[in-house]
Amino acid sequence: MPNMTNTTLMMVAAVVVIVALAIAWLLTQRRRREHLRERFGPEYDRTVQAVGTTGRAEAVLEEREKRVATYRIRPLTEDERRRFSDAWQRIQAKFVDDPATAVTEADRLVNDVMTARGYPMADFDRRVDDLTVEHAAVVGHYRAAREIAERHARRAASTEDLRQALVHYRGLFADLLGESPMRRSA
After folding, report:
1. What separation in angstroms does the CA of 70 have from each of 64, 65, 67, 123, 183?
2. pLDDT exceeds 50 at position 183
3. Where are the domains of the chain?
4. Whole-prediction pTM value?
């Protein structure tokens, strides 16, 4: 290497630095993607499909994380959990005689639990987006239940549809209370 000039050494060093930076950037992107895939589960793929590109979807999901981090989300007290669980039992019992009212009350109860936990109760889409940050495994239940409830409001849902809505609400309700086996470990 005695024939190498200072200029050549500087160029080689610059190339090594650029390659090292590129590798570091790629590793950072990979960790970011793995974190988002793990945290959001199926919501990651749904968001990629909805917005069209992986990069844009990841930016959307990161924005959700940052927004929800500013909320004062809290666990329920034991008294609140017991009160909400008792209310759920009454709703399930009511389903036998009045499925439509039971589904309406289940929707209201889920909203009450989210409010008690500290979730802002803006429009439905924003609420769902916020829930995906901590409850991605069950947020699909919420979407499905609300879709059935909307069909019911148009008188286009059967009793079986209403039963399915109640099952979907139960999945989200259990996760919000911390009872769900799908609950991600923190």
Report:
1. 10, 9, 5, 18, 22
2. no
3. 6-69, 78-177
4. 0.76
